Prior knowledge:
The protein is an all-beta fold and 113 residues long. It is 0% helix and 19% strand. It contains no helices and 2 strands.
Amino acid sequence: MSPWVEWNDGGELAEFLHPRILRSPEPTGKESEVKPHDAEKDAITLLVDPSVLNTLSEGMGIAGTWVQLSRLPSADKKGKKSKAPPTSYWYVQEVSASIPSFWTVPEVIPPQI
Length: 113
């Protein structure tokens, strides 16, 4: 999935117009080894229960609380760090809104005086 930025919510979902990143309440000290997520540019890999797949379609939006699962960089038996980027998956902890791909907001025309 990729970010949906600069969309017109029609005044319906103001709290979701700009992403907010919440941090883990208990830092492990290894967070600096993982590239920070850019919520306005980075695509994500979403973990989905197979029974939910038929309700999703390309172009739709999902607003809610997203949780990132990241594997920290690992070292091989000789202590060398892996060159592969750490694996990262996401799941939705709480869905607040699902937005259809055909979402439109009527243009407000000021009244004529």
